[in-house]
Amino acid sequence: MKMSNKNLKIYLAAPRGFCAGVDRAIEIVKKSIDKFGAPVYVRHEIVHNKHVVESLKKIGAIFVEELDEIKDKSRPVIFSAHGVPKSVPEEASNLNMMFVDATCPLVSKVHREAENLNKQGHHILLIGHKNHPEVIGTMGQLPKGSIDLIENIEDANKYENISNKQLSFITQTTLSVDDTKDIIAALKSKYPDIKEPKKDDICYATTNRQSAVKEIADKCDMFFVIGSRNSSNSVRLVEVAKNSGCNSAELIHSESPVPIDKIKECNTIGISSGASAPEILVEKFIAELKNQFTVNIEEVEIVKENITFKIPGKLN
Question: Active site includes 134?
């Protein structure tokens, strides 16, 4: 029974939710449990979503932050989609542990890029967020001191190239396309000969989800992004909605109640979800709205995604 008969228009962004890298990482955990039995260990949350982590725990995944937390070293360990520093597989090998790397192939591409630039004698700047596991993993591909982190325009403007080497930049894959553009412009203005990646490092899924949000944000009284607080790409989607004309944009994470009272003030809302948020969470959110409102949903799809990534051969 609806408590209010108010009509509510929902613009549903597409694509949204799981990307190919997240799909692959979750599949790797499931296939590892099928092949090796439970438990299997996973270093760091496989993807940044509580719902996903809890559902994998139920079938036999144990999540740890470091390898030394693993009691039974005879069990396999999986490295998360965000990638790990080189020291982690080395440590696993030294402990004779079987490991499966679920690093997203697009993150691995950035790792290889960093290594190649380093071999060519370049000093590397990584545009990204401090302490994000992807950034820790990328910086950990290279010897200490050969890569510096640039978090914002201010960092770019005050950066001094004390190495006197040719500068190159790479980026975290889950950043906001627009913010990164401004940081890159600042770096290029200070260092006109800085070398940029042949192809944008920001992943196709991040770009597509941001473009879909931009398409509908200014038509909405409020915008909701379903995703976790520690999911970089989800937090960026909220920023993109705000910067694209919807000031009232919010992240709906696992502890968030549906803000019915605020939504009652709206005629039109937008919904998207981060690349690590399962579609069931979007469906649940919409189901709660249907209990309160007469809902009219329009899905706005800007591009069809049909990318898939192969599972490592050792799991087949």
Answer: yes
